[in-house]
Write a structure and sequence with these properties.
Layout (H helix, E strand, L loop, with lengths): L1 H10 L3 H14 L4 H18 L21 H13 L7 H16 L5 H8 L12 E2 L5 E2 L2 H12 L8 H16 L4 H13 L3 H14 L4 H11 L4 H14 L7 H13 L3 H18 L5 H7 L2 H5 L11 H9 L7 E11 L4 E7 L2 E6 L14 E9 L2 E10 L8 E10 L6 E4 L5 E4 L1 H4 L7 E11 L4 E6 L3 E2 L2
Antiparallel strand pairs: 1-2, 3-4, 3-6, 4-5, 6-7, 8-9, 8-11, 9-10, 11-12, 11-13
Helix pairs in contact: 1-2, 1-3, 2-3, 3-4, 3-5, 5-6, 5-7, 7-8, 7-9, 8-9, 9-10, 10-11, 11-12, 12-13, 13-14
Amino acid sequence: MTFQEINNLRKQGKLEEAFRLAREALQNAPEDLWLNRAMGWVLYDLIKRELQTVSESEGEAETTGEESSVDLQRVQRYFAEFRKLQLPLDETMIRSQMLRLAAKAQKAGWQGFLEFVEWWGLEHLTENDWQPYHTDDGRELPSLALSAFYGLGRTLKSLDGQDSRVGWIYEWLQEAQRRYPNDQWLVRSSALALAKLGRHDEACEAMRQVLRRKPREWWRWKDMAELLESSDPNQAIMCYYRACALERDKGKLVGVYQRLAQLLAEQSRYAEAAWCARVARDTRQHRGWKIPQELQELLDAEWFANHENAPKPEISTERFARLFVLGISEASVQLKRAILDHHNTEKEIAYFLWSPREGRPIRYRDFPKIRNAPIASMAEIELASTDGRTEVVDCRLIPFEEIPYFARHVRGRLQRRQGHNHGFVQIDSRDSCFAPPQVIGNLSDGTIVEGVCICKYDQKRDKESWVMLNLKPVR
């Protein structure tokens, strides 16, 4: 009867009463399986209620300065009570649900997650635990296994590299990646583990993979900056600046601005450091958040007093970000002046040439300004080789300048070929340029015209010749 009483109280939402009754009953019959089950589900509901404000989705974890509203001491007490229960391993439903809650509690700042997972035993994950989880309202959430591994990844930040559990976590992450090879959160966590294990180059490349997926999500740059702080503080600073450039909500960035201020001060870049520290302070004060000791130490520094009214730093991060994501050094970048030869609107590309036989297509989506650029527009294109392929680092439209032996601006008389749509622009007695039909349009024979011509290679004729790209009458 006691089991049913506990269950009824739980279903009525009277969780504290159900908890007290279950604890009293278990003191008299600690091995009673039904009482252990009843207490397990009461504890589940108590923790679930405590964590109802915590998001179950992955993303911007540990990013704000706002303190958690979750009573973590109470959460710890409930999980400790659950571990005392005498539930067999085949009670898979309650065990699985509690592991999922443990991962959620870890997101709220609960420090007992790793110990709970070790007690739970990941070797007991069932095949069903690796499948996506569907909530009562029809939402699909990551599998129980993934939730646990995401939690382990978050735990890594608080572990020392000498902790043997780092290697244990990494091995489990590798097992998870074998099942989910494209999961970005697993790659991100593996990068953190590799960094803790001293495998810095591998860690950076793994984190760069995450960054390449969605390079406009600010917290990915924050992750990368944290990896780079010890090995390349200047690049770490630029990664933090990139995070700030991508996110407008300074409440999410208070930690980033504080860390930026610390790194900049270490580099004696005091004006920038003071501005960043001021943003962190003002944001916290505006939102009613306390000033942590690390930030207060910055605000009390002599250099801050000397630069308190420093203006916002003028730091451009677009170019840095483009090179960084591609893994390209500034020294490897080559600059080409090129001419827009034609558009392929169906494939959404513009084809540029920088010599009679060299050029490449460039996608509109990478450099939107080229979409509406007229034929014969000139651009500066930056190229770099990486992993055996050539990447376009930048493509910016510039005013036309002649390129010797390749591109020039000419003036002459149009000579249309009788019975044909094409013609030539006669520049002088010895020099002329071929004018294709689409360039001539409705211009009359004998019209004085001007335009851009380039030296192009005709593969069919195996010959280079001068071709007009545009024409307009000279008035």
